[in-house]
Amino acid sequence: MAIQSPIQKIGVFTSGGDAPGMNAAIRAVVRAAEYYKITPFGIYRGYEGLMDGDFVELNARSVSNIISRGGTILKSARSQRFRTAEGRKQAFDHVKKAGIDALVAIGGDGTFTGASVFLEEHNVPTIGIPGTIDNDLSGTDFTIGYDTACNTVIHAIDAIRDTASSHNRMFFIEVMGRDSGFIAMRSGLAAGVEFILVPEREMTIEGLVQKLECSKKKSSGLVIVAEGLQMGGAVEIATKVKERFSHYDTKVTVLGHIQRGGSPSCLDREIASRMGVAAVEGLLQGKQNVMVGVVNGAIVYNTFEEVVNNPQPINFDILRINEILSV
Ligand code: F6P
Known about the structure:
Distance between the termini: 56 Å
Oligomer: single chain
Strand content: 15-25%
Shape: elongated
Bound molecules: 6-O-phosphono-beta-D-fructofuranose
Order of helices and strands: EHEHEHEHEHEHEHEHEHEEHH
Radius of gyration: 22 Å
């Protein structure tokens, strides 16, 4: 399909926390670019590389055998420097010098906020691809990496369950998510935990203890704790619960960065591949300042402003269903 567009060179980069499936998205952007006769450039270390002119020309073969790999071959960074007008000017000078006409930014809300300001100041068309394990962006049902992270969590919890039930222990398992409870909510339901604690539904220790009452008759217990709770992390919560549940031997597991690694799931590879192509096609159709998403199975584009300012609400019904299932 021939699309008339002034875009001849595009740059692609990954920014913020890495997420499994970012490589699949890079591959899709690079190959779609080649398909449409555009020259793709990889930009290393996100906005840091943009400001340093750390670019490399890529082609379809440079992204062979990366669809199954976690992390990001382009590396990633959280940049403070790009928050300054001076840093963004430096980035623009490098983009201009390399003759790059448009950018594809793979990352989360911080990445898109940066892209939005950059576009406003320097008019470089940019399209975003949601890559974060947190799933905290609206405009897409799934962000790249979320599904894999949930799979990693349920496999870890399955293993913890074995030892928890062998020793009659109550485990508090802390998962990532920054300020949102998506990972806790979905993987908690799928792992069959007793209770799911998320920042979107804060509760008191008394409230939690009451909810756990039913677990007294069980031989062991699993509580999934999202990071970012005001009531504290898993260690704090476990200590307080122990005071009330002295018959339980409470233990804590903080899953940490293992949730960010590993080979991407089928879902993450699928959406990354579709979004990568949609990003290139969107740019060729003149779209800019938008994030690609997949909603109800279809590709959609929403402005950076919309996706950053309206964080995805979690589905409270999942928490209700989990309570029914943990009787
Ligand atoms: O945004 C992804 C994420 O993994 C969050 O879930 C977590 O809060 C944060 O990044 C950790 O960031 P870092 O790896 O920079 O410590």
